[in-house]
Amino acid sequence: MPCPPSITLRPFQEADTAFFAGMASDERVTRYIGDGRPWDEQTIQERIRAALQEDPLDQVGASRWFLATEANAPVGIVVSSCKDAGVEVGYWVSPDHWGRGIAGAMLDAALASIPDTYGSRNLLARVDPANAVSAKLLTRRGFQLDTHVEGLDHYTLV
Ligand SMILES: CC(C)(COP(=O)(O)OP(=O)(O)OC[C@H]1O[C@@H](n2cnc3c(N)ncnc32)[C@H](O)[C@@H]1OP(=O)(O)O)[C@@H](O)C(=O)NCCC(=O)NCCS
Question: Is 7 touching ligand 1 by the criterion CB < 6 Å?
Answer without folding.
Answer: no
